[in-house]
Please model this.
Amino acid sequence: MLYTALILVAVFVALVGKYLYKPSEKCPECDEIRVDDHPICPCGWVFEYPDDDQPIEYGDPDETL
Model:
C-alpha cells in the first residue's frame, strides 16, 4: 500500500511539473532567453514577423543615423 501511494505521488508530481512548467522562448541562433518580449535578439535574430508581409519598422525613422 505504501509503495502504491509513493508511485501515485511521484506520477502526480511529474504530471503537475510537466503541465505547469512554462519554458522561456530562446533564440535559435545563440540560445539567449528572450527578455521582455523584445522583437529582436541581440545577435540579430527576429522573433516576430508581421502578418501582412510589410517590412518591420521600429522607432522613428527620422532618428536613424
